[in-house]
Design brief:
The complex is a heterodimer of chains A (193) and B (538).
Chain A lengths: L1 E9 L4 H14 L3 E5 L10 E9 L13 E6 L2 H6 L4 E10 L12 H9 L4 E4 L1 H8 L5 H9 L7 H12 L4 H21 L1
Parallel strand pairs in A: 1-4, 4-5, 5-6
Antiparallel strand pairs in A: 1-3, 2-3
Helix pairs in contact in A: 1-5, 1-6, 4-5, 4-7, 5-7, 6-7
Chain B lengths: L2 E5 H11 L4 E4 L7 H7 L2 H5 L10 H13 L4 E6 L2 H15 L5 E7 L12 H8 L3 E2 L4 H18 L3 E6 H4 L1 E6 L22 H13 L1 H10 L4 E3 L6 E6 L2 H9 L8 E4 L1 E2 L3 H10 L2 E5 L5 H7 L7 E3 L14 H7 L26 H13 L7 E2 L24 H11 L5 E6 H17 L4 E6 L18 H8 L6 E4 L6 H13 L4 E5 L10 H9 L4
Parallel strand pairs in B: 2-3, 3-4, 4-6, 5-6, 9-10, 9-12, 12-13, 14-15, 15-16, 16-18, 17-18
Antiparallel strand pairs in B: 1-7, 5-11, 8-10
Helix pairs in contact in B: 1-2, 1-7, 4-5, 5-6, 11-14, 15-19, 16-17, 17-18
The chains are: A alpha/beta (193), B alpha/beta (538).
Amino acid sequence: MKTDIVLSGVGGQGILSIAATLGTAALENNLHLKQSEIHGMSQRGGDVQSSMRISDQDINSDLIPLGGADIILSVEPMEALRHLPYLKKTGWVVTNATPFENIPDYPAIEDIHAEIKKIANHIIIDADAIAAEIGSRRSSNIVMLGAASPFIEIPYEFLEDGIRKIFGRKGDDVVNKNLEALAAGRKYSEENR
Amino acid sequence: MEKLLLLGDEAIAQGAIDGGISGFYGYPGTPSTEILEYVQHNKEAIAKNMHREWSANEKTAMESALGMSYAGKRAMVTMKHVGLNVAADAFVNSAVTGANGGLLVLCADDPSMHSSQNEQDSRFYAKFAMIPVLEPTNQQEAYDMAYYGFELSEKFRIPVMIRITTRLAHSRAGVVRKAVKPENGIKLPEDPRQFVLLPAIARRNYAKLLSVQPDFEKESEASPFNTYTEGSDKKLGIITCGIAQNYLLENIVDKEFNHPVLKISQYPIPRKQVNKILEECDQVMVIEDGYPVVEEMLKGYQEKGTKIIGRLDGTLPRAGELDPAVVAKAIGLEVNAGPDVPSIVKQRPPAMCVGCGHIDAYTALNEALAEYGTGRVFSDIGCYTLGALPPYNAINSCVDMGASITMAKGAADAGLIPAVAVIGDSTFSHSGITGLIDAVSENSPITIIISDNFTTGMTGGQDSKSLGRIDDIVKGVGVDPAHIRVLKPSKANMDEVVAIMKEELAYQGVSVIIPRRQCIQTMKNKALGEKIKALGLK
């Protein structure tokens, strides 16, 4: 098995929490993993991305090749579009619906959603609303991970274990809220794919 | 052995810890920062009380590491590529003094300038200084090389460079640890004059450095980090350096590919293997991240005249970092990119944070300068460099650490009065003080704004070495206390801040304005909060 994921968003949105959960899930289960991320200047409100490669074989490049990503997992809709050249023909775009508007010329959100809908395989999910419903607004990134999970070739239980490990120190409540967030995201994708 | 999930930077730190290091030195700089940060939070490093504080700049860090090596212990100095320019005097001369305890110089290069002013290649510096270089291909090699690097350094009593690039520095993978080695005890150099570079001694040391060059080469030829993969199709041979090997393998892993491949990860380049690939192949492609260092060498290296291709002839792009697609094109493979980016997608450049004190300082400065016109603000390296972007358009230069004060002085010398410098507190500590001494000694008509946010913000909130001492330093250098103006930049104070700036812009001498407000990104840092309170800075 091999899954290549481009994670994208805006500096400060915490895409690395998704990467950490996935990474822990992969490592705990003896899968190979390479995860490349951006630090430094672009972290300050600019567009950020992280490449996540998981495989049961050795992984060479830290970067995903153009046209090689199985999934673009974006916590911001315009940022999902920025990385389309990396998407495989059969790949999935899984994106949060809510825009992060920190530039003066941010396009109309309807137009952004329309562009995403041109991609055959796409999920647009209002992760913020789902996280709020669960009563855990901070879990919207985990909702996003759940939404991508049907397309990731890692058993779902591995992701749950990853969450237990990452959030374990913060107590059972936090763990359970995040497990709930993961399940809610997954459910949405399964019903809307 | 234990397996850890580590960034390339962290793997280097862990390799050095396990390899028996006693002290890390460095100045924060993307993509090298996470090495020292990892050590600062590492339980073993804390338990052994390894040195792990930030230094004022890369030169002071390099010299401190050299001092620890003099005392017989193992040390590492970490920096980004342009930091090596700052440390260069100490670095080049350390090759002539040689090391005593193992000494590793870690340089993290940033091809494509993700967070830098240029994409210089540190391997040039190592060649200039004539010391060995280790260039890891992956996180495991990064660990192994830090561990092994001390052995190499102590075998030849020479500093060894480890060179990485952004992708490896900031990519995570599993790393297997080795047995932990004990630290060295204090043991002074056998020759008490080894580190005394008086001309007579320097000439002797330099002759020794020249004489061991062939030994460095033999070491590279025998190094397990340099590998030769035989291939039957000798129309083309490929040399990869460090991380470039990954991009090649990524492209050929599931394909027929029978060309000989030499992977170089230890320098000087291994003569035996290089001659072999030049001898047996009709042409050789060199794939390296950064400058065409090896490619240029080979063009003047060989007797046979094998055609060398790479970045210099356009087979690979001359600038920018490598990636799988760039390498695929070079070896003649098709790249099947996904859909184009829709035209609706707008640029999202980095920006100063909402609520940042630098923003209020720039708003005030723009207003205060309105009567003089634009084009007279020299800035520096830090978050405040983002003041170059709209809507501020507030600065006219960003060159190197500390250049704001000195460039403003030069412009004032030329008659551009008033000239303004904008510098942060950490950059001021790094390289601003010496420039201020120049300005004070001639009472140059410049206005210096030290935007003090108590931290090294751009790299993620590391210590600022002059915390709580900026005012005293400025006074101590000799700025007239009447023209040292400390203020709090905020919307509420805007009129007062503008008025103070106008007064100082009109003053025909050195004035220093210190807008002071904590970086909002550090508000969760309790230890820093307590320090700020104890120093009475709030």
